[in-house]
């Protein structure tokens, strides 16, 4: 195999050598796949051509034989969600990620629970993906209570509000200057200046809305 990738899967449910041999034979029947299953470590090491296969295919093959592939569960704290559409959007994106078995997002508690295959993804990738959607996310800290999390979220929103107000104020002054025929500094009427002020408010701070 010229173009190969290697992955290791944690397998559950094997009780004897016949189990590991059965899984190994089934995986090796796939084109351009070289698999070794170790009963002692309960792991399968698979070399494959990524142009023909992906890890999810191997997981499905193992599960079809009646065995399981170990998943990990992580809880994430998410801030910035304002409505059910926000939580639904995050949930859909997470469930489409490679390696995610199941993801649920709760708007009320501002948390997500994600079951994932550690061979395919990890908690940091989940957090990064949520952040790219315009929300703040972090791995749940069980030492933090709900009040402190909400206080942090409120503080973050306040900072965004202040930045938005500072950037929007010159544009607001320009509008009132036009209404009351007041003197307008030349800089305020420059389209590029207005663009620089408005863009962060609309596409960075206001992206999540």
Fold topology:
Blueprint: E1 5-12, H1 17-28, E2 33-38, E3 43-48, H2 55-64, E4 68-69, E5 72-79, H3 84-96, E6 100-106, E7 111-116, H4 123-132, E8 136-139, H5 146-179, H6 186-189, H7 191-205
Antiparallel strand pairs: 1-3, 1-4, 2-3, 5-7, 5-8, 6-7
Helix pairs in contact: 5-7
Account of the protein in words:
The chain is α+β, with helices and mostly antiparallel strands and 209 residues long. It folds into three domains: 5-69, Alpha-Beta Plaits (2-Layer Sandwich), CATH 3.30.70.100; 72-139, Alpha-Beta Plaits (2-Layer Sandwich), CATH 3.30.70.100; 146-205. It is 47% helix and 22% strand. The protein is built from seven helices and eight strands; from the N terminus they run E-H-E-E-H-E-E-H-E-E-H-E-H-H-H. The protein has helices spanning 17-28, 55-64, 84-96, 123-132, 146-179, 186-189, 191-205, and strands at 5-12, 33-38, 43-48, 68-69, 72-79, 100-106, 111-116, 136-139. The strands form two sheets. The chain has a four-stranded antiparallel beta sheet. Strands 6-7-5-8 form a four-stranded antiparallel beta sheet, sandwiched between helices. A hairpin with a 4-residue loop joins strand 2 (33-38) and strand 3 (43-48). Helix 5 (146-179) runs antiparallel to helix 7. The radius of gyration is 25 Å and the shape is elongated. It starts with a strand and ends with a helix. The mean pLDDT is 86. Keywords: Copper, Copper transport, Ion transport, Magnesium, Membrane, Mercuric resistance, Mercury, Metal-binding, Translocase, Transmembrane, Transmembrane helix, Transport. Involved in mercury resistance. Acts as a mercury scavenger that specifically binds to a mercuric ion in the periplasm and probably passes it to the cytoplasmic mercuric reductase MerA via the mercuric transport protein MerT. Residues 5-70, 72-138 form the HMA domain. It is a multi-pass membrane protein. Its main location: membrane.
């Amino acid at each position: 195999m010229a173009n190969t990738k290697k992955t290791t899967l944690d397998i559950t449910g094997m009780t004897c050598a016949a189990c590991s041999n059965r899984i190994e034979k089934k995986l090796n029947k796939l084109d351009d796949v070289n698999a070794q299953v170790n009963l002692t470590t309960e792991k399968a090491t698979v070399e494959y051509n990524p142009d023909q296969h992906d890890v999810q295919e191997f997981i499905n093959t193992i599960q079809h034989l009646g065995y399981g592939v170990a998943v990990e569960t992580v809880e994430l704290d998410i801030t910035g969600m304002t409505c059910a559409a926000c939580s639904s959007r995050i949930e859909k994106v997470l469930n489409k990620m490679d390696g995610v078995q199941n993801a649920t997002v709760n708007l009320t508690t501002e948390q997500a629970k994600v079951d994932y295959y550690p061979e395919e993804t990890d908690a940091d990738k989940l957090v990064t993906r949520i952040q790219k959607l315009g929300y703040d996310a972090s791995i749940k800290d069980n030492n933090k209570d709900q009040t402190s999390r909400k206080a942090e979220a409120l503080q973050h929103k306040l900072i965004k509000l202040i930045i938005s107000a500072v950037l929007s104020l010159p544009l607001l002054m320009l509008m009132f200057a036009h209404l009351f025929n007041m003197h307008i500094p030349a800089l305020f009427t420059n389209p590029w200046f207005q663009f620089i002020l408005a863009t962060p408010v609309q596409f960075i701070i206001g992206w999540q809305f």
